[in-house]
Structures are given as structure tokens and as C-alpha cells.
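Take the subject:
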Amino acid sequence: MSKILIAEDEPAVSRFIVKALEGIGHTGIVASNGQRAWTLLNENTDFDLLITDVNMPEMNGLDLITQIRASDMLQHLPIIIVSGKVTVNEISAYLDTGASCFMGKPIELKELRRYVGLLLNRRCPASG
């Protein structure tokens, strides 16, 4: 069982992700914004994966990823970044920032479970 941090400010989306993760034997911990996620990551370095939204209050997903990649303790954490209504250039920028994979919203259960499984094994499919 893996411990996965979910940085998402929409309660319905975070509940969906938690249930999806529980369905495949993982534990999901929710942070309602990027700043709270950053605090949790620094207090608990035993997270196996981060799933983060792009647009959140207090600290957005891109700033969160930038801080993680600059951290000696957290820089290798696999990250799925999630967003709706994005362009190919934006997806490329998310991946360039340090996200391991991109998933569009609305999140598809099968795709989420597949990406989580692959990233926990340190591989990621082509993002899209």
C-alpha cells in the first residue's frame, strides 16, 4: 500500500481520487491547496506520489512542483499534474516544470489507476 498526497481544492474531485486510490489499495491524503501540500510533504517525507491540480489558492501546482524539484529530500517524488482546458504548450510547460505525467480533467478512473500504478513502479506513459 502506498501513501499518496492529493493537492486539490475541489472537494468532489479530491473525494473521487481518494476513492479511486482506496479501490486499488492505496491511501490518499488530501491537501486543499499547494501551500498545505508543501507543509505536509516537509512534515512527512514518506509520501510515494503526489497528484496535484494546477489552479489552487495559496500556492498553485506549478509553484509546488518547482519547490519539490528544488528540494534534496523530495526531488525524486513522482508527480501527476491535473488540469482542465489546457493547450499542448501548457502540458509541455507542466512537464518541463518537473511533473512526471499530465492528466486532463475530468479525470477518468481507468487512466488515474493506470498512471498511479506506472508511477509507483517509476515509469510513466506518454502524457496526454
